[in-house]
Specification:
- The protein has 719 residues and is of the alpha+beta class.
- Among the domains are: 137 residues, no CATH class; 75 residues, no CATH class; 218 residues, no CATH class.
- The protein contains 24 helices and 19 strands.
- Helix 1 runs antiparallel to helix 3, helix 7 crosses helix 9 and helix 21 crosses helix 24.
Length: 719
């Protein structure tokens, strides 16, 4: 049987046998399914789009459902080239579309399917292709008197998009008309690609204007609807509703000039209500009515609600937003933690809020923030800004941790760290999270239905200093441990001048562990009989912080509650407690292991390599050892002329041994993609490693460290 011309696609009924599907058509459907299910686009989307008259390649269905749809409805009109399933080679296909004379065919050349390979600048194109299917007729029956059609249509329940979603789709359709006949690009996609090139290649606006002028000059004999300059391209893309808000701030970080529906109305103030600093700069033309005043400090906020709604406007993401629920049973059988939804915190939240958990399309979010230096670190005036990132956890792990789905929510301006005053800059984001908890009307293009999308912030992920800024428990001083809190044995080093948690870990060991009774290896003469500290539930923490005031910054100095550093280490009541569900979260804050691992590695590595200025084995440390420990071989030795000598510790390498380690790193070969080029970090002349990133430290710590330090004494060998 010859399927090369695909005329079987529109010849499914046996003449004279009402409702009977031809065997040739059934064989063709099987050939279609077996052909397309191995294509890259189908594998990436997680299923096959149904090409029937009803679905029109806008819904991903199972193979059995596709067979049923095609047997009852047939293929959508003119779908000779399976472009939505990854087919794109220039192909000769039939273009006659009269079923009574299906033997007449004409060769046509179909453009290559250009969505098969991922292009970040064409992501809006993908959304347009998937989303605009609802504007076509839902179903046009080929046989109006076929009773099977009427029976199937009774089960169809498709809604039109809500007003906001309809406005967005109409804008996409209006701006996505092809530039000319046969073109695959529209004015919208050209504008998006131009802005993407500018962002990726750091091109100036003047250069972008020259590029657009060149495009217009080349096509002067064939007028196209192209942007005339960078400004016009930016204005067109801004209509999509994914813009950024610029919010004026007090120059000292005391407040935002910002108004919302939750009782804050500071948008019209002209000076800070705390430190009375003026809002705007005083310039020569400040009195001019026509000139817009320039704020002294401003932050960028990128609303997260429209971007979460856009996830449901594309088939590629809308079908994946329920992945955490649909794949739960399969993950449960494996017995391994493969997704945050497998953890206790997620399940606890579902038990507390079953109504929220009953809708799998509701969004679970994670938040992280850290300091970022956009300029060189050795500049005369260092500048540090704080980006705030939000990630949806509904998606599969390989998607939610990828760049397109890590949403930049805010950029907190510098020039210095906001410290505990970061809550002031997070107010717009918290307001959006409150709106998400109540729900926003959203259209799901995958199910063709409107629903009330709700969202909840599950936890934050940060390094230890940022943990203290966001949680409200200070991480400095003797009470800096957020687990032990006030029940700690931390003390100040007499010579080092720093707080130390030395010998605070033995309480976490089993009660019969021999380390608990050891009087020589830890604090001299001391044993450990205490139990681990009690774990505080979220409600218990809330009872401790509910009476603590929120942070107030006056003149750039944040106030601290009474008793800070003495009876507690609470710096504020964190703004996250304003979320109505935060006190029910089992796990509120997480530590970024890569940050901590990098710090631990650098301290251990530089101490063993005996790097000057980086080692922790200094003179003050040796003096404190004599006060608290029984390690006589490490004590400073006074010579006859009154000088103090520091004996070489058995856990440090000699200069020649340190250089040999660096030479070995220069020669070691790592698998492709396993780590960066560690050889560039090895400084053989000085016997040290420079410029190692977090992942480099992880690889060295987990794999190379036991080999590099194999010359250490046996009792210090790494297992």
């Amino acid at each position: 049987m010859d399927f090369s011309n695909r005329n079987w696609m529109y010849d499914r009924h046996n003449p004279g046998k009402r409702g009977r599907v031809k065997e040739e058509f059934k064989i063709g459907v099987e050939m279609f399914i077996n052909t397309v299910k191995y294509n890259d686009i189908v594998i990436r989307e997680g299923g096959i789009r149904c090409p029937c008259v009803l679905c029109r390649c806008t819904r991903i269905q199972s193979e059995d459902e596709i067979r049923s749809h095609l047997y009852k409805k047939g293929f959508q009109p003119n779908y000779w080239v399976w472009s939505s399933h990854g087919e794109g080679c220039s192909t000769t296909v039939p273009v006659n579309q009269n079923r009574a004379s299906s033997s007449v065919f004409q060769p046509v050349v179909v453009p290559q399917y250009y969505h098969q390979h991922y292009d970040p600048f064409n992501e809006m194109d993908n959304m347009i292709t998937n989303a605009l299917g609802f504007n076509t007729p839902i179903y046009v029956p080929n046989d109006v008197d076929d009773p099977a059609d009427d029976e199937y249509d009774a089960d169809v329940n498709v809604e039109r998009p809500n007003e906001e979603a309809q406005r967005f789709f109409d804008l996409l359709k209006e701006t996505n008309t092809p530039l000319c006949e046969g073109s695959r690009d529209s004015k919208l996609t050209v504008c998006i690609r131009l802005l993407g090139i500018k962002s990726e290649c750091l091109v100036s606006e003047y250069t972008m204007d020259l590029i657009t002028k060149l495009m217009l000059d080349i096509t002067i004999d064939r007028p196209l609807d192209l942007p005339k300059n960078y400004y016009e391209a930016r204005q067109l893309v801004a209509k999509l509703g994914l813009g950024a808000k610029i919010i004026d701030c007090c120059v000292n970080g005391c407040m935002l000039y910002y108004s919302n529906e939750f009782g804050v109305d500071d948008g019209a103030l002209l000076e800070c209500k705390f430190c009375q600093e003026p809002r705007y700069r005083v310039t020569r033309n400040s009195r001019s009515v026509r000139r817009k005043p320039i704020p002294r400090k401003a932050m960028f906020y990128l609303p997260i609600i429209p971007r979460l709604q856009r996830l449901y406007a594309s088939m590629q993401t809308a079908s994946k937003m329920t992945w955490h629920r649909e794949n739960y049973e399969r993950r449960k059988m494996s017995g391994e933690l493969r997704h945050p939804s497998d953890g206790m915190a997620w399940k606890h939240f579902d038990q507390v809020y079953p109504e929220f958990a009953s809708e799998p399309r509701n969004v679970r979010l994670g938040l992280c923030s850290d300091g970022f230096t956009p300029y060189t670190q050795v500049s005369a005036t260092p500048y540090s800004c704080w980006p705030v990132l939000v990630t949806p956890y509904n998606l599969p792990p390989d998607m939610c941790m990828s760049k397109p789905y890590m949403f930049l929510a805010a950029v907190i301006p510098g020039p210095s760290s906001p410290t505990v005053g970061i809550d002031i800059y997070l107010q717009p984001l918290i307001d959006d999270l409150k709106r998400l908890w109540n729900g926003v009307a959203t259209y799901d293009i995958n199910q063709k239905r409107n629903f009330n999308m709700r969202g909840a912030l599950m936890w934050t992920i940060n390094d230890f200093p940022a943990y203290g800024m966001l949680s409200g428990w200070g991480t400095h001083g003797k009470l800096g441990c957020p687990i032990c809190m006030m029940d700690t044995k931390a003390f100040w080093l007499e010579n080092g001048g720093k707080a130390t948690w030395f010998d605070c870990h033995r309480r976490f060991l089993p009660t019969d562990h021999p380390f608990r009774r050891n009087k020589n290896a830890f604090v001299h003469g001391d044993t450990e009989t205490r139990d681990p500290p009690d774990y505080l539930t979220s409600r218990q923490v809330w009872n401790k912080v509910k009476d603590i005031p929120k942070v107030e910054v006056v003149g750039g100095v944040a106030s601290k509650p009474r008793g800070y550093g003495q009876t507690h280490n609470w710096t504020k009541r964190s703004i996250f407690w304003d979320l109505p569900y935060w006190k029910d979260n089992l796990l509120r804050h997480n530590l970024d292991v890569m940050h901590i691992e990098k710090n631990v590695f650098e301290n251990i590595f530089n101490t063993v390599m005996n790097v000057k200025g980086k080692t922790k084995d200094n003179d003050n440390a040796r003096r404190d050892i004599g006060l608290y420990c029984k390690r006589n071989e490490l004590l400073l030795v006074e010579t006859s002329n009154g000088k103090l000598l520091k004996p070489r510790a058995n856990y440090t390498l000699s200069p020649e041994e340190a250089k040999s380690v660096c030479r070995w790193v220069k020669e070691v070969k790592m698998p492709d993609g396993y780590s960066s080029n560690l050889a560039r970090c090895a400084d053989v002349d000085h016997g040290r490693m420079r410029g190692m990133k977090s992942h480099d430290c992880h690889v060295f710590f987990q794999t190379l460290l036991p080999i590099a330090f194999s010359s250490l004494p046996q009792h210090l060998a790494w297992s």
